[in-house]
TrEMBL record:
It comes from Marinobacter mobilis. This is 2-isopropylmalate synthase. SUPFAM superfamilies: 2-isopropylmalate synthase LeuA, allosteric (dimerisation) domain, Aldolase, post-HMGL domain-like. Residues 30-304 form the Pyruvate carboxyltransferase domain. The gene is leuA. Its EC number is 2.3.3.13.
Amino acid sequence: MSFDHRKYVAFPPVRKRNRLWPDQVIQKAPTWCAVDLRDGNQALVKPMSVAQKQRLFDLLVKLGFKEIEIGFPAASQPDFEFCRKLIDENRIPGDVTIQVLTQARAELIARTFEALKGASRAVVHVYNSTSTVQREQVFGLDREGIRRIAVSGAEIVRDFAAGYPDTDWTFQYSPESFTGTELDFAVEVIDAVNDVWRPDCGQKVIINLPATVEMSTPNVFADQVEWVCDHIRYREHVSVSVHTHNDRGCAVAAAELAVMAGADRVEGTLMGNGERTGNMDLVTMAMNLYSQGVDPCLDLSGMAEITDVVEACTEIPTHPRHPYAGELVFTAFSGSHQDAIRKCLAQCDEGQAWNVAYLPINPSDVGRRYDEVVRINSQSGKGGVAYVLERDYGISLPRWLQIEFSKLVQKEAERNGGELDSDTIHGLFESCYLQVPEPWRLTSYDLHRDDQGVRAEVRIGGADEVLAGRGLGAVEAVVVAISERFGISVMVETYDEFALGKGTAANALACIRVTADGQASSAAALAEDTASATIQALLSAVARLAPARELPNEAVVGGVALA
Ligand code: KIV
Ligand code: ZN
């Protein structure tokens, strides 16, 4: 029995009174640090080339990131070269700070400073592992041994930095595997590092709390962060950062709650690329803020470019359901969703707060079009089908025809097994309703109103067949004409006429449903005027009964004048 939950132990909650974070609301964006070029890169099957790194770096700059971890130059020659390239070729914008990672070891720190020589500003990020499992099983060290590694790393960083006074240095320390570290010990190590760096004396310091492995629910991580913020010395002089991974699928939530718990800064990657299940996704967290009316201080309006560049550099495709960025995330296939979206969009006024069912943001904010919102498959209902016809062809259907036509669309989608594009849906509408069965094409009509109602004369077909009838209104007069001519009793169940907007060749659409001796038939017609559209729709609907009722088509073609 390998699938046995009893071998796992629940993560212990933080015994904490007076937690404040649950009542906090995020009102401003944290400082972002993109670690795609370091943590993200370390997780790739094929690490990025220098050219790919440059492309991703340029994108991060364009999006507005001011802090970018560009690599681990002491551990990787391409990372070293990329760092040198950025500095030597003056490719770092004045408002952007590069960050590099190093272990807390003298020779690696020395090489790190070599990589950074000549930089006008940089963050040196030093880390060592502090968790119980790493102490006991990986390093075979006690707390004191681990604390000494951190302190020695901090001292070496401080001393090297002093040798490069022209660079504006920020020091960053990460107790790696923080989530598996006893909180009192994490604080002890952080305090010891800060005692070396003395942020209270002007040295800029970032204390980064990594969920190297996500081990608990996000609320427990928030407790851990709040606990550290409450207990470390020099709190007001340091920037507290979080760096969450996504092992439980909650990296974004954990970072959000951590910001509520006091974190000033968040590290992550675009689209969440990173070790195992990934790093915290910067796109999702920033867009979450945006959707709450908070300026994310990043420009993510060109989502297609973001996914293109990330895909090209990581060689990882974007999941179609990826929040805010996936191909399908602004798409509704389900009928009731389509209906709701269509209604909300119709009422959505510019300048008003966004309030559209099923769409947390306006897709156009991230370069997506409304057109993509409603797509049709066998799950779609009348609303979606109607929306597509209206959106792409200016054809608005009455409700009864939406219901009727959507059943045909559903059948077709089931037959074809997938999605139906707008052309196919229009083609289906054309063949089922709009196409005029020859020779029932209206050639001309005359309507004369007098005190007894309307007399209609309708010419159809290539020849001069004229149908004539009298009724209270035009429709009734034509019905009488058809009924008398062909000896059937036609009844109009319902009909609707619409004036069409600009952009279509026709000016009017008519939709009609008739019955004749228990048989029902519907048709629609587009024409220059509403009377032509209605008469044609009526003729087409009757003609569609022809196969069943064996209407005398030939007789009509024969062109006998009946007037
Ligand atoms: O996940 C992690 O712990 C890291 C550290 C080096 C910050 O990437
Ligand atoms: Zn990491």
